[in-house]
Protein 1
Amino acid sequence: MTTPASSPTSLPIVEARNVTVRFGSFTALNDVSFSIPESPKGEFIAIIGPSGCGKSTLLNLLAGFNRPTSGELLVKGSPIDGPGRERGMIFQQYSSFPHLTVFQNVMFGLKINRVELGLDRAACKERAAELIRQVGLEAHRDKYPHQLSGGQQQRVAIARSLAMEPRILLLDEPFSALDEPTRLEMQELLVELWYRTHPTIFCVTHSVSEAVYLGVRVWIFTQAPGQIAYDIRDAIPPTVGVPPLVAQESAEFKEAVFVVTEAFRRVSSGKLAEMNLNSKISDPQVKP
Ligand code: ADP
Ligand code: MG
């Protein structure tokens, strides 16, 4: 009998096997396991959880900035052993090079990886220009980061990341420093870009409504030592092409916010015994 796991095309895009991270005597992540199947659409996983529960720790592992104390993290069956072009990371703090213009910032990674990407100089320039257009910065391409607003700087970070065509995009509270209207614009842009380029996205946020808007599924972490307490999927309505303020008005969206808030409340109060909140919530320790 052929098992799906034996075929290279069906290897999970990301898999965590009993991942634990300790910092000295402190356990930040405890025995976390999940498997995200490769899918042509890409998954969009929004992650919320109490402060200090290991969300950034998980993203740093996925980015290859840190390693598990025990257990394994695999991308398409290979252990993650450092940063790689197929994984892009976007932080809350703007991370563009201050001495480079928008265009030069987006070109930076393209130039370095030009040969690997199979692009000649003209194709690099074309791709940079196209991404700058997609994130809505055409009019600002020759400006330096300090001449841009916070939202525009995050647009540069997104364009720089997407230029590498990552299969996995990691975002750690990317819009937390932005004002509300800008945050909503960025949420809509991110969903649109995800839908167009279909990477698998892990996005940490501290906002329940942002998680519901962005994610196809929402993971809720327990307090430290962190584990995935809830994987909420069926309750999350699709939002592609719907602006956040419109989406938030729908009954499905409000119901989803209720479900996620209720699960989060249970995590925060430590009442995980009542796991079966309703049928819309899957078991913890996520299967495909
Ligand atoms: P959050 O869920 O808020 O993103 P983090 O993943 O950043 O939480 O951190 C989880 C816990 O691990 C926190 O208590 C934090 O202080 C601790 N921690 C994170 N990184 C380190 C480190 N490099 N050294 C020691 N402790 C750390
Ligand atoms: Mg964090």
Protein 2
Amino acid sequence: METGFRISPSFLEEQNKRFESEANREYDALGEALETRGISIELLVRRAGAFEVALPSWAVGTGGTRFARFPAGGEPRTVGEKLVDCATVHQLMRITPRVSPHIPWDKPAEPQALKAFAESLGLGFDAINSNTFQDQPGQNLSYKFGSLTHTDKAVRRQAIEHNLECIEIGKKLGSKALTVWIGDGSNLPGQISFRQSLDRYLESLRVIVNHLPNDWRLFLEYKPYEPALYATVLNDWGTAYYCATDLGSKVFCLVDLGHHLPNTNIEMVVSRLLQFGKLGGFHFNDSKYGDDDLDAGSIKPFQLFLVFHELVSAGEERRGNQNLSYMIDQSHNVTDPLESLMLSAEEIQRAYVQALLVDQKALAAAQEENDAIMALRILKEAFRTDVTPILRRARQNAGGALDPILTYRASGYRAHKAKERPARSGTSAGIV
Ligand code: AFD
Ligand code: MN
Ligand code: MN
């Protein structure tokens, strides 16, 4: 597999020189300000540097709505090209070392070769995503009326087999988790039996869980509506929690921030799932109205901060195999997807570092004393702190870019890719 154009390390270094003196000045000023608050900036730089979030393979192509898709030039046409784009994001950001693949969109002809190619780019694979919400060319039975919960056992069997195939591919790629999101549900009242469809869901999932390797986890991704616009089978966190509990110790709930009805208190959902030991991970994005898949932190940065505050205050923010899985899930309709991914990864890391600034002891005392104003003030003080110098320094220490977006633009990466990757008709990238 060819990489084509890559940003050279010397170019990156040269670019960093442009931003260095200002970055240093701002870092020193913040260091001093934090010191007076009794906080060590070096410690925060280390924790920021240890933060990781996975990239979704489907988000490096231009997304679309159900009306249209307006692809820009240089879109990746193969899974190899998607990996090269992800590697470029990681090269500049240094916090996105894994890619979450989607089958069959990323189905590799030779999984081992793909794994080796990813490794040569400094990447690994995160949770593998199955897809039974579309029909694929040559597929025997249709998912028009459901997949894992279909009334016809043969359709359920086909959907189960697909998930088992995903596990097999994932094993070869080095994944440790399977994420299952289904489009099953109903568009009209009376169309499905709520009770029987959920029973069938559990019955199908049980077969998949039985095939899960011991060191794997399975994430149940819930969503209130779309494509089923009256009711989905796995509609909310409560149902997901019930199912994850029923399905045993390897099964967890996945919180996609956009999969909640407007005004849902998502940080509280996160806290509950964490408290019950059933929070598996996240799909980060932002939302104004529904499953908008907008860039993380673009609409409700305070909410993102409060989510991380719940994780940090519970001491559960660690990321890794047995801990939480952090993944981005976005659709970039009008931006260069790589720029959106870089900015989003930074916003997620920012929310995490801001949450680390919360004075936990003072907050606990304010809660104990029922001092609501002081409690809010403590949270706001952390949220208001501009931690950009910390994020920059962490990237710089790891060999990344001080200003990823400007460095990316200056490199001409997109123009190079537009030449290397002439658009193919029928290229489908980025649902969602
Ligand atoms: C769909 C769903 C969901 C899922 C993604 C990838 O809304 O967010 O994670 O597809 O399977 O967009
Ligand atoms: Mn999602
Ligand atoms: Mn979604």
Protein 3
Amino acid sequence: MEMTLRWYGEAYDTVKLWQIRQIPGVRGVITTLYNKQAGELWTQEEIKALKASVEKEEMHISGIESVNVSDDIKVGDGNRDEHIENYIKTLENLGKEDIHMVCYNFMPVFDWTRSELARKRPDGSTVLAYTQEAIDAINPEEMFSTIRGEMNGTVMPGWEPERLAHVKELFDRYSDVDEKKLFDNLVYFLKAIMPVCNKYDIKMAIHPDDPAWSVFGLPRIINNEPNILKMMKAVDDVHNGVTFCSGSYGTSLDNDLPHMIRALEGRIHFAHVRNLKFISPTNFEEAAHLSSDGSFDMYEIVRALYETGFSGPIRPDHGRMIWGEQAMPGYGLYDRALGAAYINGLWEAIEKNAKRNA
Ligand code: DNO
């Protein structure tokens, strides 16, 4: 594995590359052209400039999170084919710039959903949290304005104001999209992009639905082991793989995370590692990465990645907001740096133990 950190680019991130570079073992970042709307083409010049901005700090790009998929592609209408053409050209331009891992999601309307972005924990840190009761009480069309006030002035991924200004229209477009249709549209998209992925060895890593069940009546298709296996079988190519996100699959207590990692051996191209603390099965908050702070056994998650030969980029995921930091909720420097150090420690211990016992 390669330890990395997510970075939103010079114009958007409160965290600076020189700070990331001081986290032990981190030389790679996962980044994006954050100003791009889904469906737009990324030119080679733009990608080159992004690369240069990272490399001047003696770091490199380990993958893209995300090249977003447009609603036209997800719904299967409008400008779907033009957007797929742009996606293919974008992948080609990324391949030419030697970038080989792309994370994306196929969630309708909203990317991740949380009901709170700053729940206070007993130690004074704040975290993202979810309660089903709170979500049920929100009118989805007002979801954005409800949580906007907690974004610390940042633009959060998947919550682009330009898109969410039309949220009612978006909901209407999905009104006849059920799970089968969404799945078929995903397969259509994957089949169209596989040739370029093969040509440039670009590993596509679909991000799971977060939370792993339907919210606001919208369909969910990437939420459990049988569904991912179905997706991988429908387009059986190593470049059609997944982002294993413990905090997203882990929202459902029915998902056995180490078991899933083993079932997906060879097709996990990117790992997001974080911990959640459950108050009830539909009320959880994000915790520190340390196992004992939450509900997951992080040792078993990292061990499963190690034992299945995971060699892609890994990143600590959402951190708590600690030490007075003001940043994008989940994406401050301090707690993610602690997370990286902890995961590195687990990995080193697991690796040395495995070698000793070999
Ligand atoms: C949230 C992230 C997601 C993820 C996208 C991938 O913090 O994990 O926004 O990047 O779903 O496309």
Protein 4
Amino acid sequence: MGVLRFVLGDQLSRELSSLRDLEDGDVVFMCEVADEANYVRHHQRKIAFLFSAMRHFAEDLRSRDVVVDYVALNDDKNAGSFTEELKRAVRRHEPERVVVTEPGEWRVLQMMKDWREELGCEVEIRPDDRFLCDHETFDEWAEGSRELRQEYFYREMRRRTGFLMDGDEPAGGKWNYDHSNREPLKKAITAPERPNYSVDETTEAVLDLVAKRFGNHFGSLENFDYPVTRRQALHYLRWFVDEALPDFGTYQDAMRQGSPLLFHSHISALLNCGLLDPKEICDRAEDAYREGHAPINAVEGFIRQIIGWREFIRGVYWREMPDYASSNKLLAQRKLPDFFWTGETDLNCLRQSFKEVRESAYNHHIQRLMVIGNFCLLCGFDPREVQEWYLVVYHDAYEWVEMPNVVGMILYADGGLFASKPYAASANYIDKMSDYCGDCTFSPKKKTGEGACPFNVLYWDFIARNKERLKGNPRLNRTYATLERMNEEKVKTSRKEARAFLDGLVATGDY
Ligand code: FAD
Ligand code: DLZ
């Protein structure tokens, strides 16, 4: 036969570099393997989403006369790993060579590098040009920059891609409209209702399989209604641009109990597995601005997340791996408490976020960053444990995007490689941006004592505990000046109460 083209579960695009020169006689190979579902125990919904999307993608290729060799998880001889399954496929097809697109995770790239020897067959690894910035361009930019700052990278990406540019100038006159994107949600504002996608036979079979094989993993499979085909993903993107994008910017940081999506796109899982392409998403968003359908603060904010943050985070991952995984500059060692899995905590903001992620494998950015992430930072949870939790629970989580967000963005475990200061905040921020505190047993206004919100005592404990490591940071000058001015007894009380709270966290490691 010709070429064996191995497509991974997060590479579901017909434009993929490894499929581009597909010819008669070639075979596309895909496999569901237990190792990928178990190397961390992924949320049941994430596995179901990906298997269903993979099976639909294979069906779509077959409908275009492509020969697809698809090994399902419950196939008799399934060998359980990429390498062993590929070996079997090579024995079946005896290809002249194997072609793959580079993977999203460092661990899988190491596997791929061994394949030529293990398979006794030529293996070509092609770049993943679904991203808008390749590794060399990112590294060159990083080498030439005094500091790794997303904002400068983003401006460079705007110039290079031409998104939201009027000649050499940014559309609307400014590069960044973030200051207009921090409005709390007024009661009268309601979030638009999402389209849902019915479960067909293929998805039904996957849901049964996942319930049987991974029913003891975190999360629920109930009410599965997410897009799983390219056609559904495009329909969903159109819906988002029409109905939610215009308010995306203004309420980007807001949180509301019982309304997990608000005006967020909920496209990350579709984008990361290849059903949507970053360029087409940004094109649609820019069209909405140019046609007067969505304001500049919404469209600029949205495009920045994709060509700025998403590409920047990927660049950091590949530049810093493999040492990045073990970063722990703040020497944080506390074990993750059980309630991250059970959801049983009296802190309402955390309880609501944990409930939502169990049901849907999704939280929006501010819940990930300022509620759960902030709590992890303040408590000093071990970065390895936090990384694993974030990789398990979200349906969009792959190491290349999860790790820098956890290590760099929320935990400051890389010592400020790209964040100018830790994102530490007391209860005030959550109270301002959400309605969680109204239904909580703790008060955000009380700083210490009975009923005080733990975020308040934890905040000052974090600042005091890390004084030697952080006080040289100019962006924390005011914080440390406030700590110096604070009544000594008050600081002592805060720290004592924080210690009692931290000592009371139960971490059995059973989950
Ligand atoms: P929207 O708010 O609608 O944003 C649009 C898109 O911008 C997202 O779909 C995403 O592709 C991109 N984006 C926005 N922020 C980021 C960012 N910081 N890094 C990379 N892309 C970004 N995103 C993932 O895709 N996978 C992850 O595993 C992941 N882990 C995260 C862990 C932490 C601790 C934090 C703080 C953020 C993480 N993010 C991750 C980024 C972001 O929170 C999600 O992309 C976003 O919440 C997905 O929801 P959405 O599609 O509604 O995004
Ligand atoms: C996440 C995942 C899971 C759960 N299962 C599979 C699978 O069975 N087959 C597959 O090709 N990909 C799977 N994936 C996605 C891979 O883990 C992903 O391709 C690598 O982590 C590289 O990003």
